[in-house]
Design a protein that fits this description.
The protein contains nine helices and seven strands, in the order βααβαβαβαβαβααβα.
């Protein structure tokens, strides 16, 4: 690991068996327009392929789990790293090449932009489904799931989130600190459940248009029967998050006022 941060932004990339995609992604992240604004951390979740070797060969910072802990746990350990290294902002993106690196400057700029009331966002979502986004095709079952999660979030928070399962997100330091703490983050599928919870807790959230692509290599973490498991788990997790905040008043002491300082 390097001893000093070169930038105030850290890009966290969870990776599990992404040997066919990670090298190309790292090459794109090494272009000057990205390298001059962001450091990169790969969270290798006990890959059994050559992911670890490829990243080390490119002399990139990497944390490798001994056992596979899951997507959420990989992210949370990255958040802990960002907090300890005093990064001001984090952008998380996938290792499979679906998230175009051109999204990074746009999300980073939005994190530092005040709204009409002088508030900065805590979370910026890279959305596939708002004006300005690239065309994105998906199976019918995914479209149904997105619509279902949008409805749950809107009923609970009165906010319409166009892309409730996007893995492309920019986070302020206050959000990263919250996520890094025990029992504050889903260890497997931190998607619509976390978005709803953060809205209920008063964190400021925005969406920006994003460019995304279909996976061309490797196996998605939502392959096989996993989408069915994911749907059930996410639905119950969303309900549990609503109960914990609105009925049990967990984390009531950290409900956020608008973020006025960049």
């Amino acid at each position: 690991m390097t001893q000093e941060n070169k930038n105030e932004l850290l890009i966290i990339i969870p990776a599990y068996n992404e040997e066919k995609n990670i090298d190309k992604l790292l090459s794109e992240l090494e272009t000057p327009k990205i390298a001059q604004i962001a450091d990169v951390l790969i969270m290798n979740d006990a890959s059994s392929d050559q992911t670890n070797r490829i990243v080390k060969a490119r002399n990139r910072d990497i944390v490798t789990h001994v056992f596979n802990l899951g997507y959420g746990s990989a992210l949370q350990l990255g958040y802990k790293y960002a907090v300890r290294r005093n990064y001001r902002y984090v952008i998380q993106m996938d290792a499979d090449g679906q998230h175009g690196v051109d999204n990074i400057p746009r999300i980073f700029d939005e994190l530092k932009k005040k709204d009409e009331n002088g508030n900065y966002p805590d979370i910026v979502l890279g959305s596939r489904f708002i004006e300005g986004s690239s065309p994105y095709e998906a199976p019918l079952v995914k479209k149904i799931a997105w619509s279902f999660f949008r409805t749950l979030i809107r009923l609970a928070t009165k906010r319409r989130i166009a892309d409730p399962t996007t893995g492309l997100q920019g986070l302020s330091r206050r959000t990263v600190i919250y996520y890094s703490k025990f029992n504050h983050f889903d260890d497997l599928y931190p998607d619509a459940n976390m978005i709803m919870k953060m809205l209920l807790l008063g964190f400021q959230l925005r969406e920006v248009p994003a460019t995304m692509y279909a996976r061309t290599e490797g196996v998605s973490m939502h392959s096989g029967l996993r989408p069915v498991i994911y749907m059930f788990r996410m639905t119950f997790s969303i309900l549990a998050s609503w109960i914990s905040v609105k009925i049990l008043h967990e984390d009531a002491g950290i409900i956020k006022e608008p973020h006025h300082e960049g």
